[in-house]
Amino acid sequence: MTERIYHYDSYVKRCEAKVLDVRRTDSGIEILLDRTILYPGGGGQPADFGIIRGEGFEIGVIASREEGDDVWHIGSLKGKVPNRGEEVLVSLDWDRRYENMVQHTAQHILSAAILKLRGADTQGFQIFEEKSKIEIELQDLSWKDIVEFEIEANSQAKRCLEIKVDTTDTAKNLRKISKKVLGEMRVIRIGDYDSTACGGTHVKNSVEVLPIKITNFYRKTSKIWRIEFVAGDRAIRTLNRFLEDYWKSMKTVGRKEPPLNERIREKISEYEKMLDEERVWRKKYGKLFREYIPKISHKVGKYTVAFYEGISVKDADKFVDEEIDVDFIVIISEKTFALYSRKKMAGKLLECLKSKMNVRGGGGDFSAKGRVEDVEKFREEIINCIREL
Ligand SMILES: [Zn+2]
Question: How much is the mean pLDDT over the chain?
């Protein structure tokens, strides 16, 4: 059995312990101690990181696993394999843990606020590296509700409510009971505002979680809403990141007055207008191109041929059809090419070219496309091939 020091004091950053058991695994080591300050994860709160040091070894703990009353710490081993009964010093990655405690405690307050204002229970909770999320069942949710939740939660946190842990065997007056624990329950009380069953770690006073800020909300299913939030220093960092992005975006669209959304809409409609104009020009260009091609064609053997290099293969494909009065149209754009033949010989022409030089590509009777490195030679061989056809 592992004594869980974090259960009654979540501010202990170092402790001494004794090795009860050790298991080697493919990826590292698992170690069982008689007592620990490292939270193994659960209830939406991630497992702690930490270091276990002993005589001649060091274990970097990156995960933990609960097995009944035991907490096994999982990590990588430097040095010798520890023996049972050895004394170790456990130290906690405190900055990371404290940030999780802040987010976790903020969640209790926010969940209590949402329950109070909208009667909605929190059904899920998870802390991530940059944000946390809760899930609630509600018909509808708006930014107006979000502001109300935030004002309620922050006002309560400002009251300097003491956070205490105790145990109870009754589920009476609890916001949430833990289904996992039978009999005695670990209860987190936030002043007179909230009491709930929870196995995680929390701060001592509600002011530590200020400010609490919801950053996003959206429907997960037709009934379940997901609310993302940040608290404490994380809230300040996150909001600054958002604001930096916001003002940079405002600069990018070339304007200074909000709302940004309207400025972006203006840009989109300008862009759509340009696309419309481009469509008109393209149509005119296509018409001119089709008139121009027969004028630049010349005789090669018994066929008429036109070479054109002022258009992309992609555009040519839109403009060229069998109505143009030329037997072969050859489009070259940098190292790509397209061959068109109203005589249905484009594929044949490509085969001929392949037999004479290094050409990649494929196609059918009317058109064939490909890529060539030696464009100069390509121009010459086309003439030769057309003569042979
Ligand atoms: Zn909790």
Answer: 93
Q: What sign results for the dihedral spanned by CA atoms 168, 169, 170, 171?
A: positive
Cis-peptide, bond into residue 259, ω within 30° of zero: yes
Domains observed in the chain: 3-92 (2.40.30.130), 97-251 (3.30.980.10), 293-388 (3.10.310.40)
pTM of the model: 0.77
Cβ atoms within 10 Å, residue 77: 18
The residues, ordered by sequence, that sit 6+ positions from 298 with a Cβ below 8 Å of its Cβ are 304, 305, 306
Distance from the alpha carbon of residue 198 to the mean position of ligand 1, in angstroms = 5
Distance 201 CA to ligand 1 centre (A): 6
* Contacts for 61 with CB less than 8 Å, ≥ 6 apart: 38, 48, 49, 50, 51, 52, 73, 74, 75
C-alpha of residue 38 to centroid of ligand 1, in Å: 16
109 CA to centre of ligand 1 in angstroms? 10
Taking the centre of ligand 1 as the mean of its atom positions, its distance from the CA of residue 377, in whole angstroms, is: 75
Distance (Å) from CA 285 to ligand 1 centroid: 68
C-alpha of residue 353 to centroid of ligand 1, in Å: 74
Handedness of CA 198, 202, 207, 213 (dihedral sign): negative
From the CA of 183, how far away is ligand 1's center (Å)?
Answer: 19
Cα of 18 to ligand 1 centre, how many Å? 28
> Residues 30-83: pLDDT tens digits?
999 999 999 999 999 999 999 999 999 999 999 999 999 999 999 999 999 999
Residue 195 Cα to ligand 1 midpoint, Å, equals 10
CA atoms of 374 and 363, how far apart (whole Å):
20
φ, ψ (nearest 5 deg) of residue 315: -70, -40
